[in-house]
């Protein structure tokens, strides 16, 4: 198992009550850069989590505004539930040095989602 990282995520498919496996998730750094920078791209595992933490052990970490982009439209379409209303769900988070492990869960269905800062 990977060591605790600076940022992790977990997705749950609330329409079917299962982890959201196989979802493409991208992490973008929005500032302090003049243009967005793709930091990492991953696909959620069978338990709906990113296999490796973003910024593992703070390697390459830059404080500032970041955006996780969850491709839930293709995920739900692939499960035969239609693409729903949402295609890509962006979740902006401000990551600061010295704040420990950030965890961003996403609970989603084809027609809605919610998120919070987890532990």
Automatic annotation (TrEMBL):
Keywords: Hydrolase, Purine metabolism
EC number: 3.5.2.17
InterPro entries: Hydroxyisourate_hydrolase, Transthyretin/HIU_hydrolase, Transthyretin/HIU_hydrolase_d, Transthyretin/HIU_hydrolase_sf
Broad enzyme group: hydrolase
Matches recorded under PANTHER family: 5-HYDROXYISOURATE HYDROLASE (PTHR10395:SF7), URICASE AND TRANSTHYRETIN-RELATED (PTHR10395)
Function field: Catalyzes the hydrolysis of 5-hydroxyisourate (HIU) to 2-oxo-4-hydroxy-4-carboxy-5-ureidoimidazoline (OHCU).
Protein name: 5-hydroxyisourate hydrolase
Gene name of the encoded protein: uraH
